[in-house]
Amino acid sequence: MKVKEIIDKLYLENNASFEELLFLLDNLTPTDKVYLVEKAHETRMKTYGNTVYMRGLIEFTNICKKNCIYCGIRRENKQADRYRLTLEDILECVEIGDRLGYKTYVLQGGEDDYFTDERMIEIIRAIKDKFPNNAITLSLGERSYESYKKMYEAGADRYLLRHETATKELYESLHPGASFEERRECLRNLKEIGYQVGAGFMVGLPNQKNSDLVNDLLFVKEFEPHMCGIGPFIPHKDTPLKEEKGGTLEMTTTMLALIRLLLPNVLLPSTTALGSIDPVGREKGLKAGGNVVMPNLSPTSVREKYSLYDGKICTGDEAAECRKCIEGRINKAGFRVEITRGDNVAWAKENGYHKVTKGNIQLENIKLI
Ligand code: SAH
Ligand code: SF4
């Protein structure tokens, strides 16, 4: 078995076995890595071209009832300065976002019981009333089937719920009191309801082995999410994992490239966490197959408080600055921003969304009825 042959197989067949993926991770040389990234880039060029989709991230609450041991806003972190945004705050972010060209808003937060279904429905409807053609992505953790359904019916389009790790023992060691099966059940429910669903995992968790990462790759291949969020684990000073080492740029970009090869159509963010461990981390993620960025739209007054990990970038920048900075970086890396909802290509096709372009600029993903 040769690593290059496995990469060629991944490129041609978008598949590989557990043994092949493990062999690849255990034996990948710097030369192989260059080849892997090249093939992931070619694959992305075939499905999404050189475009990058933007999502405006609104971190609307850092109050959380869960206690994930890696996370800086976990329940037991008494140092965290807690906040919630009001409906008006959120709408203000959305309006600024629309003007800046963000046609998707990601509402992300801790698992905060204050945000009942009724309150979430009110927020979702208020955004959709103002911007019916823009997309809403939710990322609020685990909720019941009925809750997910109500929010979908109110107008939410997508849901991000990373599976975090596909190895049961590792999952349980990181999530006291939480259930590995229930998280997966949530992902299945979201898909069944009709959301575009994002799974995903952290790279470089304490005690995570290459075989665990292969479990992640194969879980994502099998579940076939519309999106996949992959970022390095970064220790947070007020958590039990504060002394641990974090994930590396190299390992994270390897995972991004492999996911692009396994699922050519997937929406693949080059994450803020990657940009936080390396000054050009996001650019490297885009070059390894990433096609989405999620700049921050939260009010600057709360950015520092939404502290999942140490060293988060852009906490002092206004939304407009982030917007300008990210476009400059994207262009410099050889890509271009596309101002659209940025749906998964396969999903858009199935659901009757068509690209409307003027010259070489795509204007909108329009639903033709
Ligand atoms: N509460 C929701 C959404 C907010 S957390 C949820 O957990 O799904 C969003 C993501 O941040 C998590 O899925 C996790 O993968 C990531 N995250 C949390 N702490 C982190 C850390 N220390 N380093 C890197 N990523 C982290
Ligand atoms: Fe809460 Fe999400 Fe952090 Fe877990 S990762 S403690 S659910 S915010």
TrEMBL record:
**Which residues bind S-adenosyl-L-methionine per the record?**
E164, R183
Q: Which cofactor does it need?
A: [4Fe-4S] cluster
Oxidoreductase among the record's keywords?
no
Q: Where is the Radical SAM core domain?
A: 50-265
Q: So which domain of life are we looking at?
A: Bacteria
InterPro entries linked to this entry: Aldolase_TIM (IPR013785), Elp3/MiaA/NifB-like_rSAM (IPR006638), FeFe-hyd_HydE_rSAM (IPR024021), HydE/PylB-like (IPR034422), rSAM (IPR007197), rSAM_sf (IPR058240)
Q: Which residues bind [4Fe-4S] cluster?
A: C64, C68, C71
Q: Name one GO molecular function term.
A: 4 iron, 4 sulfur cluster binding
Q: How is the cofactor bound?
A: Binds 1 [4Fe-4S] cluster. The cluster is coordinated with 3 cysteines and an exchangeable S-adenosyl-L-methionine.
Keywords, ordered alphabetically:
4Fe-4S, Iron, Iron-sulfur, Metal-binding, S-adenosyl-L-methionine
Query: Which sites bind (3R)-3-methyl-D-ornithine?
Result: S139
Instruction: Say if the entry is tagged with keyword Lyase.
Output: no
Q: What is this protein called?
A: [FeFe] hydrogenase H-cluster radical SAM maturase HydE
Species whose genome carries this gene: Clostridium sartagoforme
The organism's taxonomic lineage, starting at the top: Bacteria, Bacillati, Bacillota, Clostridia, Eubacteriales
